[in-house]
Design a protein that fits this description.
With 584 residues, this protein is of the alpha/beta class. It has 2 domains: 313 residues, ABC transporter type 1, transmembrane domain (ABC transporter transmembrane region fold); 247 residues, P-loop containing nucleotide triphosphate hydrolases (Rossmann fold). It is built from 21 helices and 10 strands. Strands 6-7-8-3-9-10 form a 6-stranded mixed sheet, with helices on both faces. A hairpin with a 2-residue loop joins strand 9 and strand 10. Helix 3 packs antiparallel against helix 4, helix 4 packs antiparallel against helix 6 and helix 6 packs antiparallel against helix 11. The protein is elongated, with a radius of gyration of 35 Å.
Amino acid sequence: MISTFRTLYPYLVRYRWSYAAGGAALFVGSAFAAAVPLVVREAVDRFVSGASPAELQAPAALVVAAVFAKGVFRFISRSLIAGSARRVELDLRGDLFLRIISFSRKFFASYRTGDLTSRAVNDLTAIRVLLGQGLSLMFDLSLTFIWALAVMSAVDWRLTCAIFAPLPLISLTVSYFGRKIHSRFHAVQGRLGGLTSAVEQNISNARLVRAYSSGGYANNHFDQLNGLYYDENMQLVGLWRRMYPTMELLIGVGYVVVLIYGGFRVLDGELSVGSFVMFVAYMAMLTWPMIGLGWVVNLIQRGSAALERVNEILSRRAVIADGPATDSAIDGVRGDLSLSGVSYFHPGADQPALDDVTLDVPVGQTVAIVGPVGSGKSTLLDLVPRLIEPASGVVRIDGEDLERIPIAVLRGSIGLARQEPFLLNMTLGENLLFGAPGPLEQWQIDEAVEIAALTETVESLPQGYEARVGERGVKLSGGQRQRAALVRAVLREPRFLLLDDALSSVDAETEAGIIENLRRFLRNRTTLIATHRLSAARRADRVVVLEHGRIVEDGTHDDLVESRGRYWDLWRKQSLEEELEHNE
């Protein structure tokens, strides 16, 4: 367990003074709390010896003052410790988020979105409760126990030993149930991750569920996961239900010892009435620490199980990251691209997605990459921003191996638009500016919108740029979403523009206009356009034909048509299909 909590050390050190101040305040508060039974003992002995009411006023005032001081210092301590725990949670969640978004697509193929969400929200909440309420209670209970044990032992060590005789049984009970709670809470969080993932998937794909009339299946699947989550929680509740009565039974034994053995010692004159009352008061003080011990163990086990799940993510290292070969002096790129003998295999695949690809693209050239589905077009584009790493071969920009270029510099020089763009549930303007290198003038935004032929859409929206587009841009059509993603890419002022079938949902006439608009923007920028529409490829400076991950043709549109090879065959078939559609 110590190795599990090692992750928290840097965060606790960061806020060590706040924790230390909270611990000091808790120490003083517990000292005032421990002083109350001593004052009560003195007051009772005075009363028994026949003291006047005036003589009891001083002890009564001391009790009130001690209780008040205890409350003040405990308020201060819990504010400091709970505040520190919140700040640790804030920092830890930020680090976890940055780690998650640094991973490659292989990582996200291994983890469900709902499970990652559960770790970033519910598990971190359990860790925060442990570092706040858990640490505060642990320290408070320890101090209360030490103060009470010290005073009780000084007054009558025999009675103290008798009272604490059941302590080993309490320790065994806590240890037994602690292990059970740890494993059960781990299972609960796993079920919660699955449940969260199911909710996320059904909400994100609500239209698909309705279109396939799959509401019944989705509901049954959710009920099944919800039931499993309920069952796991009820088993956890069952552990608590057995632990707390067991603890209370063992504590009750201590009360019996005080009342019987302590009572006989009072009758024998070996213990004063005031001391007997003091022992009863300390037993009352220790009742909560004993029961609270079970609660603290519960918090520790929940927190450690949650931390194990978070550590599972934090301990992973991004496969694609800056390394020893990275040259931090590189702060920009021009745009020369070179692939030399590059091959790539998708995880678990036997056949390469790219097979010995060699390609040189000089600065400012627009290259269309065409080929049938599964030929490796998107894979080739993903190599440029290092979203994937080649299995063999080298990818270079400006003559430098990609490993030498800092990832922030590399990806900061790239504008990427895909066939299925992802829009955030924000305003249209916020989505367009997502990823922009800095503040932009309105004319720059309007110009990019005009390039992507999105001006009419913006003007048709009642709130214009301030219109909210909904989750994943659901309020916009597929073509509008694609053009919004293109605007986003253009506003980055990239050295590389990568379009991965980015206009597939736009009609051919609009696409032709957008390509013409882009020609002005693309001066001195390197552009790769993966497309299944050869009308877009026709306007490129050069066309590369991929088939089964290999380059089978490379040249201008006119040259490839004249050569009557694979590209000509694709061009002829697509032209015939467009002609038939036009005649209809």
